[in-house]
Structures are given as structure tokens and as C-alpha cells.
Write a structure and sequence with these properties.
Strand order of the largest sheet: 8-7-6-10-9-11
CATH superfamily of the largest domain: SPOUT methyltransferase, trefoil knot domain
Number of strands: 11
CATH class of the largest domain: Alpha Beta
Order of helices and strands: EHEHEEEEHEHEHEEHEH
Number of helices: 7
CATH topology of the largest domain: Alpha/beta knot
Distance between the termini: 20 Å
Number of domains: 2
Strand content: 25-35%
Shape: elongated
Structural class: alpha/beta
Length: 236
């Protein structure tokens, strides 16, 4: 954890007291003791420095000042819903990388049963996202939209100007720049998008982005492609 995140309710109590895994991390890895400091942030709020006021074998208490703005999310991700284990990895890493919104969509090669997985419940995926935010040292909680029918995606896309990119194995790379808008990256299932799905994306302004001719697993492409886009657009 590069940042300890607390909720607004936790932040309203002074001193703030943690007795869960965050406290364990503070004691075990940051060697918290009275007077020591660490980075803290409020979910969807600012971040700053906390000072430990008490430590015991079960909890850590601290006061803090959160006056610094958090890093802003910089991209949206459209993801053909993968199996639960892959989705958990993608949610964590995407939150750490700065995703703003994740659209979990159906596709011809997506198992319909995946849409009944427990991980799609808000109380299940929120802790995974929080862990990713703490790794990425940021506070803005990503939004999750579940759209079992791909056709429902088009109306849900951001209203602002967007740079719309769809991932497919290819040998040629699209040329684009940050002036074209907020990046929205579509990553398909392990078997890839169908020709009909690619045509639908193209009809809504998406163009190809690729990591080369080799087909990749969804949980690889969903992390590698935003990293490539971030580098090419010089986002920091």
C-alpha cells in the first residue's frame, strides 16, 4: 500500500482508528509507532500526511491533514466480461493505473453465466478497487457499469469528445494524439471480437490499437494497452 485510504465516515472521527488489514499493513510493513507518519487519502477526496497517535496489537490511531489534490483518472475501459479470476486482477490493476470508468460488456465469446458472478456486486468489487487505488497512490474510485448486451454500450459512452480505440491483433498501429479527446479503450474476450462486433465499434468511431500480431489474454491486454496509450499521449 503506497497510500492508506479511509472513507468520509472514518475521516469524520478524530483521531481516526483502523483495526483491519490497513492497520496490519501500518504495523507490519510501515512499522507504525507513535509520532511516525504515512500517506493517507479520503476516498474520492484529497490526500496528505497522517501522524500516528497510538498503536496496539489490534489497531492504529492517527490524526491527519488532507490538503493535496489526488491524481485524476485519465482513461475509460470497455471490457468484454472475463472470468472472475481475471476480472479481479484487471479491476485491481486498472484502478492503480488511473481508470475512470469500466464498462463490463457482453460479447459473442463471453459466457453468459459470467454475469451472475458475485464479483459484479458493488460490495464485492469495491474493496478490490480500493486496494488498487492504494497501490496507485490515488483516491478517485472508478465507476463500474455492467452491460450484458453490447448494444447498450453506445448510449452509455461518455458525452465529451473521446479518443475511441479498440484492441485487435494487427501489424499496423493507429496514429493518434491527446488532442483527440479522453481515451476510451475497448478490450475484447480471449477469443477476440467478432467481425460483426468490430463493425459495430467502427460505426461508433472506434479505431484499431494493437500490441502486435499475437493474440493476448484479456487480462494482459487490459493492462498493457492503457500503458501504451499513456506513454504515447505523454500522460503522467
Amino acid at each position: 500500500m503506497n497510500l492508506i485510504l479511509i472513507t468520509e465516515a472514518e475521516a469524520a472521527v478524530s483521531p481516526c482508528v483502523l483495526s483491519d488489514a490497513r492497520a496490519g499493513h501500518l504495523r507490519t510493513f510501515l512499522h507504525a509507532r507513535v509520532g511516525s507518519t504515512f500517506r493517507v487519502g479520503i476516498v474520492n477526496g484529497r490526500q496528505g500526511i497522517a501522524t500516528v497517535t497510538a498503536v496496539d496489537e489490534r489497531s492504529v490511531a492517527f490524526t491527519f491533514q488532507c490538503t493535496e489534490p489526488s491524481l485524476k483518472p485519465w482513461y475509460d475501459l470497455i471490457l468484454a466480461l472475463p472470468r472472475p479470476r481475471s476480472l479481479r486482477r484487471i479491476l485491481f490493476q486498472s484502478a492503480a493505473m488511473g481508470v475512470r470508468k469500466i464498462f463490463l460488456v457482453g460479447a459473442a465469446k463471453v459466457e453468459k453465466s459470467y454475469f451472475s458472478m458475485h464479483l459484479l456486486r458493488e460490495e464485492e468489487y469495491t474493496p478490490v478497487l480500493i486496494d488498487g487505488l492504494m497501490q496507485g497512490k490515488t483516491t478517485v474510485l472508478p465507476q463500474i457499469m455492467v452491460l450484458p448486451k453490447l448494444c447498450d454500450l453506445w448510449a452509455a459512452l461518455p458525452a465529451e469528445d473521446t479518443l475511441r480505440l479498440i484492441a485487435n491483433p494487427a501489424t499496423e498501429q493507429s496514429v493518434f494524439s491527446s488532442a483527440e479527446g479522453f481515451p476510451v479503450i475497448a478490450v475484447g474476450p480471449d477469443g477476440g471480437w467478432t467481425a460483426q462486433e468490430n463493425a459495430a465499434f467502427a460505426g461508433h468511431g472506434f479505431r484499431s490499437i494493437t500490441l502486435g500480431a499475437r493474440p493476448l489474454r484479456t487480462d494482459t491486454a487490459a493492462i498493457a494497452l492503457p500503458a501504451v496509450v499513456q506513454d504515447r499521449l505523454n500522460y503522467r
